């Protein structure tokens, strides 16, 4: 303990305190919320998802012929894939019958909703319009192909391993749809967007 006049704080420790004569330029600068790309992406993605959730059911009601054509087309593709390998396959509208197993292609089987979620993620991502167009042109057909493969797999499971069909349809493939969307989106980011400054 020292006696005498008020002890002087060392010059170095005074200058190290932020706000003591300096503005603290070395402190990390925070971007406003809207200028932060991560926050902006999450916000826009949620907005686009909300729009999809409202518009998609309305479109399905107002354009039934369009969506029915997509269901028929998907069933026809499944039929064409299996027909060269077996005579025990039938097609009637959106119904595919294979070796005693009947699979009706409904709207949820077409992958439209998954494509719209993917489109929302692409449109919300902070990159150029051109790269977003590339992402949509590349990703939407790829998702459709994956979805066709998914339905084909389920038809085969239903025909040959019927006991496993419910699990594969309700649990396994629903989780796989999320992985499928995420994978195509990340593929687009790594192949197309990664060179962005």
Give the helix/strand layout:
Blueprint: H1 11-16, H2 37-62, H3 64-82, E1 89-92, E2 95-98, E3 101-104, H4 112-124, H5 129-160, H6 162-193
Antiparallel strand pairs: 1-2, 2-3
Helix pairs in contact: 2-4, 4-5, 4-6, 5-6
Textual characterization of the structure:
- With 197 residues, the chain is mainly α.
- It has one domain (33-193).
- Helices cover 65% and strands 6% of the residues.
- It is built from 6 helices and 3 strands.
- It has a 3-stranded antiparallel sheet with strand order 1-2-3, covered by helices on one side.
- A hairpin with a 2-residue loop joins strand 2 and strand 3.
- The termini are far apart.
Beta-strand fraction estimate: 5-15%
Alpha-carbon distance between the termini? 58 Å
Class inferred from helices and paired strands: mainly alpha
Question: What's the total helix number?
Answer: 6
The tally of strands reads: 3
User: What do the pLDDT scores average to?
Assistant: 84
Main beta sheet? 3 strands, antiparallel
Query: How big is the Rg?
Result: 28 Å
Question: Shape, please?
Answer: elongated
Helix content: 55-70%
Q: Tell me the series of helices and strands, N- to C-terminal.
A: HHHEEEHHH
* Uncertain stretches of 5 or more adjacent residues: 12-17, 19-24
Question: What is the total domain count?
Answer: 1
Q: Could you give the order of strands across the largest sheet?
A: 1-2-3
């Amino acid at each position: 303990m020292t006696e005498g006049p008020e002890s002087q704080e060392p010059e170095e420790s005074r200058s190290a305190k932020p706000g003591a004569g300096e503005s603290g330029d070395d402190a990390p600068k925070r971007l406003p919320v809207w200028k932060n790309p991560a926050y902006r992406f999450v916000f826009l993605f949620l907005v686009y998802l909300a729009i999809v959730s409202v518009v998609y059911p309305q479109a399905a009601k107002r354009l039934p012929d369009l969506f029915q054509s997509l269901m028929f087309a998907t069933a026809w593709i499944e039929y064409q894939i299996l027909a060269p390998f077996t005579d025990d396959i039938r097609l009637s509208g959106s119904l595919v019958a294979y070796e005693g197993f009947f699979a009706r292609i409904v709207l949820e089987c077409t992958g439209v909703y998954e494509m719209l979620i993917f489109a929302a993620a692409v449109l919300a991502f902070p990159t150029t319009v051109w790269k977003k167009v590339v992402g949509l042109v590349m990703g939407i057909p790829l998702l459709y192909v994956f979805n066709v493969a998914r339905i084909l797999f389920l038809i085969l499971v239903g025909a040959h391993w019927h006991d496993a069909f419910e699990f594969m349809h309700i649990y396994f493939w629903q989780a796989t749809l999320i992985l499928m969307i995420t994978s195509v989106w990340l593929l687009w980011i790594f192949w197309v967007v990664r060179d962005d400054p």
